[in-house]
Amino acid sequence: MTTTALKPARLRVAPSPTGDPHVGTAYMSLFNLAYARQTGGQFILRIEDTDRVRYVADSERQIFDTLHWLGLDWDEGPDVGGPCGPYRQSERLDTYQPYVDQLIADGHAYYCWCSRERLQALREEQERSKTSNTGYDRLCYGKTREERAALPGFTDSPVVRMLIPDGLDLTFPDVIRGQLTAPPPDDQVILKADGFPTYHLAVVVDDHLMGITHVVRGEEWISSTPKHILLYQWLGWEPPAFAHMPLLRNQDRSKISKRKNPAARLAWFREQGYLPEALRNFLQLMGYPPVHGDDEVASFEDFVAAFDWAKINPVGPIFDLDKLTWLNGHYIRSLEPAELAQRITTHLVETGQWPSPPDPAAVDLLTRATPMIQERLTLLSEALPKLAFLYTADSDLVVADDALATLNADAPRVLAAAIDIVHQVPAGSFTAETLEAALRAGLVEGLELKARVAFGAVRTAIAGQKVSPPLFDSMAVLGQASCLARLRALAGRLATQG
Ligand code: GLU
Question: Domain end: 369, 386, 403, which one?
Fold first, then answer.
């Protein structure tokens, strides 16, 4: 489909600021944004903060930060404004009230003065008697305040409930799933005692007033949709199209929750050192086939160009972190080394491992060392541990026991020869190539040693470990003085140990 063939669509993501953002918010944003971009329409961010009990003050900022980090930018929202604002529901309370009044006047909604205790007792009684009549018993329906006040379980501040009619049509078309049927709803509260609308009223009013054409959200909202469609009908509005995305699942098929899986927190990916482009590509593959056949790597632009609702698989996609890590390695390798060093620096500052601003000398060292780790790096967070020996003062380098254990009787003469060779390399040509040629000639050919033995001893001196980034590159980055100091330190240690 080409962009011109489609009517510009308006889509939104509507997170509730109840904690640090869930990975599902990014997943929903990605698919909403893709369709908005494909049709040349708009993507809107709306903050659904009507639940004042679960409200967390810093959550909204985290939603902005993490979605911006992923490059999932919105055209209208609380921070950027737009023609349908305000985009924060708590700032729209005056907008909802007339619709509540209208629904009451039309007989579609009614006041309910039942106390929390009465509703609790009602629920317990229904559970005990195992009745099929669950839900609110309409005690308040048709009563004036005075009539109701005469009965037990009365509270002064009422809520407003929808009067769900008998025989409500519970089926509706879903863009992804075809015709769906939901269970019959209860007399849903639409206005709370604190004067805030519930999600169900606010979502309908706002989606309508904001001109939303497609409501794309998680499958947990399927059962609410008939209520929403009913509100559209009562208010005389055309409902939008509905698309219920599958829920992301753990390997054991359980729903991803912040309690059980750290990867449910969107911030976790940033903390771990995933690149936003890798996570974005990964989320594109959740319930959606690779854009380029067998190749799972695809840009957002390619995803947008090929996007098709019919390709979404509604069976909950499994969140496979190995795949994400693989994609991350791919994106890390495709960065320019200087850009990668910049990303690692940002990661170190953001995670508090480096101060802000970082020490220029540390950044310079990282920039010089990054090319030698790039090939095998899968997470930004692995960079500093791999390079720790470069950031250690020569006198503080700890030689690991397992590295020492690999040294054999040849080690003292290897180190003595290496010191001579390194010493003789002219300072101006202290490069990996020169060092490799000189050490190979002097140690492997000159001393007739196996490369593994010869270079193993040098590596132990330079990095203090059995395994390190490429040896000669490491030495070039470290510089002549440090290499000599480290070789001498290990040679001296072996000499005193006799
Ligand atoms: N505020 C709802 C949520 O947090 C939005 C659901 C919807 O998109 O309609 O999931």
Answer: 386
Claim to verify: residue 405 and residue 484 sit in the same structural domain? yes
What total of structural domains would you count in the chain?
4
The residue to mutate among 28, 51, 196, 203, having the most atoms of ligand 1 within 8 angstroms of its beta carbon, is 203
How many C-beta neighbours within 10 Å does residue 49 have?
A: 22
> Which range of residues forms the domain containing residue 213?
92-245
User: Is there a domain that residue 321 lies in?
Assistant: no
Ligand 1 within 6 A of CB of 16: yes
Together in a domain, 298 and 342: no
Q: For residue 13, what is the enclosing H or E element? A: strand 10-13
Task: Pick the atom of ligand 1 nearest to 13's CA.
Answer: 8
Geometric angle at alpha carbon 15, from 170 and 87, rounded to 5°: 100
Q: Same domain for 424 and 472?
A: yes
In a domain, 197, yes or no: yes
State residue 70's pLDDT score. 98
Give CA–CA dist 337/476, Å, rounded: 17
On whether both 372 and 463 belong to a single domain, the answer is no
Residues 370, 304, single domain; the answer is no
Phi, psi of 76 (to 5 degrees): -135, 145
In this predicted structure, what is the pLDDT of residue 158? Answer: 98
| Cα 141 to averaged position of ligand 1 atoms, centre (Å) | 29
Q: What are phi and psi of 78, to 5 degrees?
A: -60, -35
What confidence score (pLDDT) does residue 438 get?
97
Nearest one of 90, 88, 18 to 59, comparing CA atoms: 18
240 with 364, same domain: the answer is no
Give the pLDDT confidence score for residue 5 in this predicted structure.
Answer: 72
**Choice among 319-323, 339-343, 460-464 with the minimum mean pLDDT:** 319-323
Give dist(CA 453, CA 443) in Å, integer. Answer: 9
Global confidence as pTM = 0.94
Q: Is the CB of 18 under 6 A from ligand 1?
A: no
**Could you tell me the distance, in angstroms and rounded to a whole number, from the CA of residue 480 to the centre of ligand 1?**
60
7 catalytic per annotation:
no
Residue 3 has pLDDT above 60, yes or no: no
**Which residue's CA is the nearest one to ligand 1's atom 3?**
15
Query: With a 6 A CB cut-off, is 207 part of the ligand 1 pocket?
Result: no
**In the chain, what percentage of residues exceed pLDDT 90?**
94
The b-or-e profile of 60-93 (16+ CB within 10 A means b, else e) is bebbbebbebbebebebbbeeebebbebbbeebe
CATH number for the domain that contains residue 375: 1.10.8
- 143-149: average pLDDT: 98
In a domain, 329, yes or no: no
Catalytic residue among 7, 130, 255, 258: 258
Question: Is there a domain that residue 322 lies in?
Answer: no
Do residue 116 and residue 215 come from a single domain? Answer: yes
The per-residue pLDDT for 2 is 46
* 176 Cα to the center of ligand 1, angstroms: 18
Q: 214 in ligand 1 pocket by Cβ < 6 Å? A: no
| 415-442 mean pLDDT | 97
Q: 203 in ligand 1 pocket by Cβ < 6 Å?
A: yes
Q: Are 110 and 61 in the same domain?
A: no
